[in-house]
Write a structure and sequence with these properties.
InterPro entries: 3-ketoacyl-CoA_Thiolase, Thiolase, Thiolase-like, Thiolase_C, Thiolase_N. Helix content is 35%, strand content 15%. It has 429 residues and is α/β, with parallel strands linked by helices. Helix 1 crosses helix 2 and helix 3 packs across helix 14. The structure holds acetyl coenzyme *A. The site of acetyl coenzyme *A (ACO) has 22 residues, from helix 6, helix 8 and strand 9.
Length: 429
């Protein structure tokens, strides 16, 4: 997003389904089922039945080959007008926020007046692939014209080639799980188990309080029997979390990362409605906030020695400088809790003079934030993290929080993503 922009895109609100734990409430739902239901919830909330919006942009990290046109198919299955264009984007866990930035940029440039950004993921209906031998044999079988050709193709299939390739939650270039990568970062930044567990408890308490005060009533639509995020445990305590065994970085006797202070594998979808101010006024819809600016960054975690999930630390000074802001100039911070230690390492890096000077090229550290302003309505540790759906959850929730706080309030979003990438964004009410 280059500055200055012709106009700012407005965030009008969002919708998501409660997030489910993997292989649980949504075990029978596909990405398309969940995205369609989420779009329909948004359509109902904003009275968009039969209407065409400028574009729908969404994506999934884990996607079957049959879902090559996932977003468009979901639009066709929804109550939006069938003439609404739609396409897929994918930037790992940054997908939902990147989709919102794409829609906002097109609105800012006057190319569209309204749009929906979203994301969906299922770890229950993960796409299984077959090995090269079996794939080639099946294609040959499909193209075979004679019985002899068919038998030859079948003859190529060896028992060993029948074993499916199950997608792993790991980085292809290192073979390490994202949690194991993060364990290295947690050790490098000396993030204690207690601090991670405290952040986790806060996430659960804040999300539970947000549900209890009705904050999520117009952000979440019940789905397949769930009314709240299935992972939410309001009774989580530091004492209970302290009993869990480490699950990542287990080669280290002082390993700190557990199932409690890591996000669970999850299923779910989210969507956000954005528009120009004029479109919002024409439709009688209040503007919650504007998406002011955004920045992506990538780090070399393979050869460069940087932590896999540290890219937002690099994107942040760029977006702050472009907008003449400091890290302290915000009323709310939404830092995606991939793991509790990801949030804590990122915050520590921004406070660290050596990191800010040597790696970010800054004269002074970005400094500390007021922790009371962080993830005030809970985040991914409590809600769960269906990869591509997290961005939409955060944008909609922050926009509403800013609107509640009054005009002229500012919020900051930071989302780390697989492949050493990160997306940050600024919202203003
Ligand atoms: C850019 C990014 O976002 S990167 C992040 C991408 N996401 C990931 O990599 C996902 C990482 N998560 C995972 O792989 C898995 O969820 C794991 C490995 C952490 C845990 O998987 P599982 O072992 O299936 O977790 P499970 O839910 O069974 O929890 C294990 C135990 O911890 C307990 N537990 C989990 N959370 C809590 C909590 N908040 N409070 C108390 N106990 C808890 C469970 O009750 C369970 O106990 P039990 O064994 O007595 O039943």
């Amino acid at each position: 997003m280059s500055s200055p922009q012709p106009r700012r895109a407005a965030v009008l609100g969002g919708n998501r389904i409660p997030f489910a734990r993997s292989n649980s409430a949504y075990a029978q739902a596909s990405n398309q089922d969940m995205l369609t239901a989420t779009l329909d919830g948004l359509v109902a909330r904003f009275g968009l039945q039969g209407q065409q919006v400028g574009e729908v942009v969404a994506g999934a990290v884990l996607k079957h080959s049959r879902d090559f046109n996932l977003t468009r198919e979901s639009v066709l299955g929804s109550r939006l007008a069938a003439t609404t264009p739609a396409y897929d984007v994918q930037q790992a866990c940054g997908t939902g926020l990147e989709a919102a930035v794409l829609v906002a940029n097109k609105i800012a440039l006057g190319q569209i007046e309204s749009g929906i950004a979203g994301g969906v993921d299922t770890t229950s209906d993960a796409p299984l692939a077959v090995g090269d031998d079996l794939r080639r044999a099946l294609i040959e079988l499909n193209n075979a014209r004679t019985l002899k050709d068919r038998l030859r193709a079948i003859g190529r299939i060896r028992p060993g080639s029948l074993v499916p390739e199950i997608p792993r939650n790991a980085e292809p270039r290192t073979g390490l799980a994202m949690g194991d990568h993060q364990a290295i970062t947690a050790r490098e930044w000396e993030i204690s188990r207690e601090d991670q567990d405290q952040l986790t408890v806060r996430s659960h308490r804040n999300l539970a309080a947000a549900y209890d005060r009705g904050f999520l009533d117009d952000l979440v639509t019940p789905y397949l029997g769930l009314t709240r995020d299935q992972n939410l445990r309001p009774d989580t305590t530091v004492e209970k979390l302290a009993k869990l065994k480490p699950v990542f970085g287990k080669d280290d006797p002082a390993a700190t990362m557990t199932a409690g202070n890591s996000t669970p594998l999850s299923d779910g979808a989210s969507a956000v409605l954005l528009s120009s101010d004029e479109w919002a006024a024409e439709h009688g819809l209040p503007v919650l906030a504007h998406l002011v600016d955004a920045q992506t960054a990538a780090v070399d975690y393979v050869h460069g020695g940087e932590g896999l999930l540290m890219a937002p630390a690099y994107a942040m000074p760029v977006v702050l400088a472009r907008n003449g802001l400091t890290l302290q100039d915000f009323d709310f911070y939404e830092i995606h809790e991939a793991f509790a230690s990801t949030v804590l390492a990122t915050l520590k890096a921004w406070e660290d003079p050596a990191f800010c000077k040597e790696r970010l090229g800054l004269d002074a550290p970005l400094g500390a934030i007021d922790r009371d302003k962080l993830n005030v309505n809970g985040s991914s540790l409590a809600a769960g993290h269906p990869f591509a759906a997290t961005g939409g959850r955060i944008v909609a929730s922050l926009a509403k929080q800013l609107h509640e706080a009054g005009s002229g309030r500012r919020g900051l979003i930071s989302i780390c993503a697989a492949g050493g990438q990160g997306v940050v964004a600024i919202l203003e009410s």
